[in-house]
Write a structure and sequence with these properties.
alpha+beta, Glycosyl hydrolase family fold, GH92 mannosidase fold
Amino acid sequence: MGRSLSPTLWAVLLHSFASLTSAQTTDWTQYVKPFIGTEGTAPATGFNGGNVFPGPVVPFGSVKLGPDCTSNNLTVSANAGYLPDGITAFSLTHVSGTGGGPVYGVVSQMPLLSLENVNALDNLTYMAPRAEPDTASVGYYKTTLRNGIITELSATSNVGILQHTFPVGSQGYVLVDVSHYLPSPGGDYQSQFYANGEITISDDGKTYQGYGVYKGAFSEIPAHQVDNSTVSGGPLTYLFGDRVGAVFKFGSNTTVVKSKVGISWKSVSMACEFKEREIPHWNLSEVTQGAKKAWNDEALSTITTSDLSNQTRLQMFYTGLYHTSLMPTDKTGQNPHWDTEEPTYDDYYTFWNTSGFYNGQVQGGSNADNVLADAYIKGLQRGINWTAGYLAMKTDAELTPYNTFDSGDPTSSVKEGRGALPDWINLRWITPSYSRSISRTVEYALNDYSVAQVAKGIEPESYDKYLNRSAGWQYIWQHNITNPNYEPGGCGQGCEAISYIYEALPWEYSWTVPFDMETLISFMGGPNTTESRLDAMFIPGGRLGAVGVNGGNGIGTTLYNPGNEPSFSTPLLYNYLPGRQWKSVLRSRQIMLWQMLGMYPVVTQPVYLITAPWFSNMSMAVGGGKTLHISAEGLSDTSYYVQSLKINGDAWNQSWFSHDDIKDGGTLEFVLGSTPVSWDTGAVPPSPGHLSVNKTF
């Protein structure tokens, strides 16, 4: 995954100190394990890890409160703040599961026992090692430092509560560094930086408020010590302001210091309002219980089961479901650019951020188009202005964004849109004069297929145009795999931004045409040859080199790479081959969530590929008070192949079903066994974008 430079990010904060001298039936949060995904491929490190955020948060919460860690290993990025290394602060803003350069880690506090040898401008001088591994559960986080300080955390949507417990009889300090943020290893071109800020301390020394401005480019920032009660880094529009912050001192008779911090992306007054409304008390346990309730009510109870026999599967499933609601960030009512009552969400790393971060320097497509098309063909209305949505998609398809000449990729815009449109429009494929030419060609094809799906209803006269353009991937298909210039296992310069394919091998991208599998299978020589090529994806040792920066986007040694997006749907493609659905079940048991339900959605199509459930029964809310019930007779650790299936009471012989079959609820009744059978004798999944351009590259 990739992330490019960040535009201005505002974090407005309000804080208060207080010092002290000494129901539902099933709680689904008990199955969530927040540390799953934090460890990398090297045990006890974050190297090549999932960058998963483990701290307290509510569904889509703006506050993600957790530790910020520093690693002396420059190959490791702490994108979500957490690493097993030393702690430099506890901050309220993080992302989860992302690649690219780290972002956020702002609005922070760091508890200290002494200021001796502490340089507030260098967090390595006060970085604190842990005494033991951190502990976490939904809505709660605890860190015990080697110096004896214990910090406990919880959060609401826009407010964090921190409780620092100091050793009895010790002097206590809390450092508030407005300029603190998560750094990138080596200060590369994706680094963020502090630009400006202000902090004001109340006369009684118990509250502070202010703001921080953070930008996405590396800069050496001038700094000096300050001792005023109000400190500003410079004029509001100045982007190279002085670093500002404050140190709060507590007497040796103070054991516990509690702190509430409200943040807003828009104004100080809004941060104040959040703080008073969301946590009007000082009870951390009450905040924790509120977070658990929010997760149970709003997210985890949307899919339930009475099959509680396998704790590992329950933990895998509900932790995965939990992760799906960590992002994006709900900033409704806090749009800093224009006034709107519409829902506002940010941090869309799933299809590359559309507001807070540049989105042109990734696989290369305009992938919001795919999300819009997926919603449109599934009939989602709910107040959506589809005419405006379609016009935005057409802009992506027709307007070439200006070249940003970014150091990470000077060939086209990394800020937005499809930077290689001139080639795509004129040639129907992308030449190597643009970076990521292969992956962009494949991405643009799916993007134009998406535009065609919405055009069919909004502007029918443009449907054929965009559908024909979606066949451009065929222009670069290599039919002669004995060609000495064909390198299915290579990508040039590390499979990164300036390579001809991005963070995946050509062999991986050769499967990413979900809208026209019929043509793809014919190009490969028919179902039998396609099956053999698919089988080859799962042979250990097939991938000879790593992909991505420092090899950080690969897991295992097979050509199939579960560590990055281009391979995600590959195990399910056996469903497109008659009688091979059982192989999809076999291969997909190493990935999860949708597959654990017994189905997998095909993006931009009203189609679900059938796998096999991992629980004997599950109930999934599908909206409007309706429920889809899934059952699996005969399920065990060795019995997971589909023997037969009924959908809404009807016998089923296809390895797929449509959105219409389940949109109003219904039943999926599986019978499973230990032996693979070819039960899927019906029609294979559709190829709604099927076209043949009869063009050889």
